[in-house]
Amino acid sequence: MxxxxxxxxxxxxxxxxxxLSAAGRAAELGVSHxxxxxxxxxxxxxxxxxxxxxxxxxxxxQMPLRSSVGFKEGTREEVLEEWQDDITKxxxxxxxxxxxxxxxxxxxxxxxxxxxxxxxxxxxxxxxxGTMGNIRKLGIPxxxxxIVNYKLDDASLIKNKHITLIGAGDSAIxxxxxxxxxxxxxxxxxxxxxxxxxxxxxxxxxxxxxxQEIECVYEGAPAAINAGLGDELSFAAELVVESPVGNxxxxxxxxxxxxxxxxxxxxxxxxxxxxxxxxxxxxPLIGEGYQSTRAGLYVVGxxxxxxxxxxxxxxxxxxxxxxxxxxxxxxDQELVQKVLSDLPGFTSVKEELEKIRxxxxxxxxxxxxxxxxFIRASTIKFFKKGDVLCKPGDYAxxxxxxxxxxxxxxxxxxxxxxxxxxxxxxxxxGAQSLFGGLAWSGYxxxxxxxxxxxxxxxxxxxxxxxxxxxxxxxxxxxxxxVIFSAVISTLPLNEIQETIDEMDFxxxxxxxxxxxxxxxxxxxxxxxxxxxxxxxxxxxxAISRNIGGKNQVEHLISPGQxxxxxxxxxNSRRLSEASTTRTTELxxxxxxxxxxxxxxxxxxxxATENHTRxxxxxxxxxNADNRSSQVMGFFHNSNIVDGTNVLIIDESIxxxxxxxxxxxxxxxxxxxxxxxxEGDSFASIHIASxxxxxxxxxxxxxxxxDAISRNGDGSILINADTCIGCGNCVTNCPFEVVKLVAxxxxxxxxxxxxxxxxxxxxxxxxxGHHDPKAKKVAVKCDLCxxxxxxxxxxxxxxxxxxxxxxxxxxxxxxxxxxxDRRGS
Amino acid sequence: xxxxxxxxxxxxxLQDSEDSRSFDQDTLRIGRNIDNDLIIQGxxxxxxxxxISRDKAKKLHIKSLSSSGILxxxxxxxxxxxxxxxxxxxxxxxLRINQLDSGYDLILEVIDENQANAGIEKLKLKRNVxxxxxxxxxxxxxxxxxxxxxxxxxxxxxxxxVSIYVPSLNNFLExxxxxxxxxxxVRSWSIGPISxxxxxxxxxxxxxxxxxxxxxxxxxxxxxxxxxxxNHLNRDKINTEESRLPSCETCHKEHIADQYLILSNRDEQCxxxxxxxxxxYKNAEIENVHxxxxxxxPEFKASITSNFEEDSPVVTRVNIxxxxxxxxxxxxxxxxxxxxxxxxxxxxxxxxxxxxNLECWSCxxxxxxxxxxxxxxxxxxxxxxxxxxxxxxxPDNELPHGKADKILSYLQGFYKNSPKGTRIxxxxxxxxxxxxxxxxxxxxxxxxFDAEKLTLDQYSKQMGKLVFEKGxxxxxxxxxxxxxxxxxxxxxxxxxxxxxxxxxxxxxxSHQTFECLSCHAVDKSELSEDVNIxxxxxxxxxxxxxxxxxxxxxxxxxxxxxxxNGKPLTPKKEEVKAWHNQLLVNEVEAxxxxxxxx
Amino acid sequence: MNRSFxxxxxxxxxxxxxxxxxxxxxxxxxxQPVGPPSGASWLGYTLGTVAALxxxxxxWFGVRKRRYQNTKLSLNTWLSAHxxxxxxxxxxxxxxxxxxxxxxxxxxxxxLMVFTIVSGIFGVYYYLTVPALLVKNMKGTNPESLRQRLxxxxxxxxxxxxxxxxxxxxxxLYSIDHRxxxxxxxTMKDVRKLRSVGAQLLSIREVSKARSSExxxxxxxxxxxxxxxxxxxxxxxxxxxxxxxxxxxxxxGDKLNNLLDFVNEKENCLLKLNLDSRYKNQLKTxxxxxxxxxxxxxxxxxxxxxxxxxx
Lengths: 824, 598, 311
Prior knowledge:
The complex is a heterotrimer.
Chain A: E1 6-13, H1 17-29, E2 33-36, H2 44-49, E3 55-56, E4 74-75, H3 76-90, E5 94-95, E6 100-106, E7 109-114, E8 119-127, E9 148-149, E10 162-166, H4 170-179, E11 184-188, H5 199-210, E12 214-217, E13 221-227, E14 237-243, E15 246-252, E16 254-257, H6 264-271, E17 297-299, H7 309-323, H8 333-340, H9 349-359, H10 368-377, E18 379-383, E19 388-390, E20 398-404, E21 407-410, E22 421-422, E23 428-429, H11 431-436, E24 443-446, E25 450-456, H12 457-464, H13 468-489, E26 500-501, H14 506-510, E27 513-517, E28 522-524, E29 532-538, E30 541-547, E31 550-557, E32 562-563, H15 565-570, E33 577-580, E34 584-590, H16 591-599, H17 602-624, H18 626-637, E35 646-650, H19 659-667, E36 681-682, E37 685-687, E38 708-710, E39 716-718, H20 728-732, E40 739-742, H21 751-757, E41 776-779, H22 792-795, E42 802-805, H23 807-823
Parallel strand pairs in A: 1-2, 1-8, 2-5, 8-17, 9-16, 10-11, 10-16, 11-12, 22-26
Antiparallel strand pairs in A: 3-4, 6-7, 7-8, 13-14, 14-15, 18-25, 19-24, 20-23, 20-25, 21-24, 27-34, 28-33, 29-32, 29-34, 30-31, 30-33, 35-37, 35-42, 36-37, 38-39, 40-41
Chain B: E1 2-9, E2 17-24, E3 28-31, E4 38-39, E5 50-54, E6 60-64, E7 70-72, E8 75-77, E9 79-82, E10 87-90, E11 93-98, E12 106-112, H1 113-118, H2 129-133, H3 138-165, H4 167-174, H5 179-182, H6 205-208, H7 219-225, H8 248-251, H9 268-274, H10 277-280, H11 293-296, E13 301-306, E14 314-319, H12 336-339, E15 345-346, E16 355-356, H13 360-363, H14 378-382, H15 407-417, H16 456-470, H17 473-476, E17 479-480, E18 490-491, H18 536-540, H19 550-553, H20 573-597
Parallel strand pairs in B: 1-12, 3-4
Antiparallel strand pairs in B: 1-2, 3-5, 5-6, 6-9, 7-8, 7-10, 10-11, 11-12, 13-14, 15-16, 17-18
Helix pairs in contact in B: 3-4, 15-16
Chain C: H1 12-30, H2 42-59, H3 61-64, H4 75-97, H5 105-138, H6 143-164, H7 166-178, H8 188-201, H9 204-214, H10 218-226, H11 228-247, H12 253-310
């Protein structure tokens, strides 16, 4: 038995960039090693999940590559080929089809058990299994048939086939919908619903099934795949599915299995890797030298929170160095130093990092690895006393940590030591934008010379939210700020009569509770008891009233606004019903405590009451106008209240010239970022398919290179230079307005030669064919930031049918227009 | 008959595949039923859709088996002859007929609809005219636009251009009934109608427009025909920039209407120079005129002729108010006052007091033009009363009037036959002022010479001197006596200015309704020196309106007006026609020829 | 008035064009030119220059419309100005020529300009009325889904017909091949064709009946011809009748009922699509006149200017 057990110094699990690099370094150093790969080929993620010919980027560019295995920017095939070559060159000991089952024993003598029953002994184990997990296979006879696939490269290439999809997740549904346009599609669902998928996907598939566009076998369990007869008339294979109605035989040309991947967390938990929280997507706790909480077990690569290939490779290299006992500086040492060396009195990277951890309460719990990443992405900024850092209405693009000095948040644009309203001096700026998608509500002024560490959102969010304690602190800070801002916003500056300090609201903030709700849930009903008020943190809340048996939406509450306050102030029962329109996070504030806090400040109390009165008046005015209420209901249903800047077409004056699309294509490299015809309509209001610059941009949630950012005016922009074309934003956008497009220089053309002779391309003509090898980047509406005249679509609409703006402004515009129409 | 059915597939995923089946039979049946040769799946295919057969001439026929017909090259037919390249659509499938020489009589290529839409879009489907004209394609808009552009270029530029050189075409176009055709003649470029005076050269644009393009009409062009035109300005003496010089075109506008050929109702053109005439013409003696007649015309100046004695009388311009200088010495002794006396003048025969009242018109008669008065003639107007008798005893003998040089010989002849007498009465110097009554001969008086002693010749001379000096002639005329030699004595021939205002045109005829005296206050004029005309004020009484333009009184060109080769023109339609026929045809031809060669 | 290019910037361009025309009229009345009022006086030249510049500027709209980069004024503003200045051109150009018209290139230029403006007025009318009609016609749906619905109806109707009888299937097939979107407008000829197809399929007795029914009174025919809607109705009735005649005794009442429903729905869809494309054509057809006319007007304007100044 024992002779069967192979012994190594290092066992590396996973042959992705990190694992491969680690194995490469080990091989180079002559350390006895084994690289275990669960599938039959190296780098499953790149090999399998990446599309054919996908351009692999060399991000982050300034980071040096520190690896024995080569890596250059190129196509997926080129990258894989280079690695394959290096494996032979370096004589890496690689074992394929070795799926990890468990790791027993302790440091120095781990016993790695594989699914195949084999066992491997290793002194240390490096986990580089990535985050994608292993493809879940069916494990049924005939699965090795070449017609069985686990992914779909390009649905448009498959035509007139009968395709069977197995799975009920988002990817299965998306594939099925895409394929059903040109093929006959059967989808096999193990259960009897599609509720695991996103709402949009599940409703789409249900509609398709109802329209008989797609056949569905519910509660079906694939049992076997039998090869077809090869006859011209019959199909390539037969899939036998067990279902409640008995065995179903499906004749099919292609089988696509989309049963998802094995979740990693359970495996990691079983391995004894510690996590900061229970979040499924959290990254393991990593200590010095990439060591996890289990001694001798190292974690590198995507699993260590490094989704970028180059970084992962560097980690692979470094982890071997650490195991070998050499404490080398991380590869990013120079980069971190470059950032920190700007600090006054800079000594060494290590000391400065320690100092930051010690001085900043927020950062004390962050691991060194994360901190380095945090710093690397950041820049140091200096401000003089009295400088205005932010203005109201600005959206922060980054969070800023105050390293030294202090700032004040104020309603005034200048620094006044005796300011009436003093906001809490703060360590973190930009939390509102980071967590709520809210614009600044006041001025941020430096009260003395300050040093700031400015960090882009993506990095900040990833790192700050990975630690529960930081999350809580930020939460409190955010809640206090939001309450305070909401209170202050009701109050004109010149009406302040008393001293107001943000810290006065600290208790109120501590007493709040956060409430997460799904779309369409009722928060409170009409005539129920009112004992609290709410602040919308994210999402939107519809305030509606039952009028004539019909539920009519009166008002929509956007993030940063509160509701339910009227009843508290008036001491009445609920006047209206509140319900969520999408996934919403609420801050629940105790009514009594709120009153008690407010009473301290007579002018605020008065202003709040006035505000309430106005709101009531406004609501009743709207009520009188049934149509406007309908329009608001439509706005609400079509989710455009999610957006900060929405493109709406007034169909009652739209002549369908498509100039908006042409203008967009012409100003954006020949690809229109809007689709006039698509989208919902109500009466003559049509929401064109175009980016809405959401409060909570789905596209921004998972952008590896942090290429998506919120601009100062609220617009969401994609940086084409840093975009790696991963397509995450495309899938994450609920409105399907982000596209992957090959960046190609637009053909120059002469307008006059086209006008006169039709030579060259037409102005605004979409580029038809793209070079399939060209780098693809994500594009969407950028509100024409580079054009002084504003969005080209609006600017080039001859009749003024196309308008862009915030939903509330548009609502007002349409109300005005319909009034005008009635008047005329 | 051999058939081959070939399935064309371009599925990229499945590699290119072609599977084909061949048949050798008379007909090929297509439909959904399984007993067909080509079975087409799909509910939108009839069970027996159509059949392909071949006739004796080896032509292929297709016949529909269902009432819905077959879609051949985009049009629905029940039956048709088909040939290579035709496309037949059955349900979701396109069938392409291929009769290429390949051992088969017919190769039927089966193409799936989706593929056809993707790649074989070139299948030209017949579309009717209306479909083709449907909007939406800029190409069509562009084509229409080009048609419009080219059409307007050809119609309104090219054809007129050609018709300049092809008179027959121009004639045809010009006389066309259709306005659009007329609008394509050369005339269509004309900005307005040609006046009838120039009608004959109307279609010869380059008769006038001969200079460089975009230049105004040169005066030369006008002067080609209007050779005798005299300008009132001498170009050589004018010291102003060329652009300010008036050209013919300044005042003569063609292409508007007849009445505008001479812009008589405008003063601007005149004032343009005359507002500061000294700038324009250094030697100008006239004053500036800034406005119309009433407002700023300077006081009139009369042209006063002096030095009548000499052969070259001197004409001076005298301001009408300058009473001292306003004397015209004409050599005649005449009092308007006496002649127009209310008491009347004595009749010549009547030694009694028979008088007659004279009127202006008794002597002054309008000339045929109606402009001026006819000249006063001795024989007609004076002689009846003022006889040139010199001998009381022979009252029928009169000295020849107007022939001073003949008087001596006349007297010699007279006294040869008559006695040298003492019959001549000499007027005393004291009584000189007393006028002889008309018709009275020289009265006898004491002679300071002895008639008897003198020879006939001497006597005649003495008598002649008396006639000249003291009677008959000097009664009305001034006598020039350079020395004592009677032979050198002369009667100054009375000369009058034809008009005192020669620079203005005036017609008495137009002013007939006025009394003569209202302008000529001769009833108080005792001397013939008096210039009996009034100044501006008198004219303004009536000529105060806007109509009183410069050209009302002044002419730009000096006389003769409006001439062409010295012949006065009185243009009337018929006359113009005749004139054109006689004169212009040749001349204009010659002229245009000249212009062209130039 | 919710007509943004009409009341853009509170009728700014209407006011501007009004002032321009008013000024021209006042000057024209006050002006005493040499000769009759014409293009040759200073006012004539001024008005002519203004009119020519406006014309060129108006034509420039075609270029401006296709320039999307960094535009100072929105296209909406341009359109507003385009409309009003174009209208003011009627006044200015008429005053420029001083009402002198003749069969010449100058008048041709004027007439072409007037035609262009008139076609533009049609365009304005369509732009103002058609979008609302489009929305009203579609009533919440859109052409694409109607087209999809048409395809669906065709397929479902075919399979239904197939289940009833092959002859019924044939009729439905016929109606699909002869009744599609681009052939949404039909004539009596189509109705007659359908009738003869029905007649072929029906028995001899039915044939004679169908033939006799073809002898519709002339006045009735005329009435039908007057309205396309009635012909559609007639076609639908005819189709329904044939279907009923063919399948009446085939014990498929419910299927037939369904089939007839589909036939009805299809005709309704087609009517809607027909209206939709008619409206959309209206939005574009006027341009087929406007653009070539405007170019012809510009060309004759150039000829006008060259000939006037050449001589």
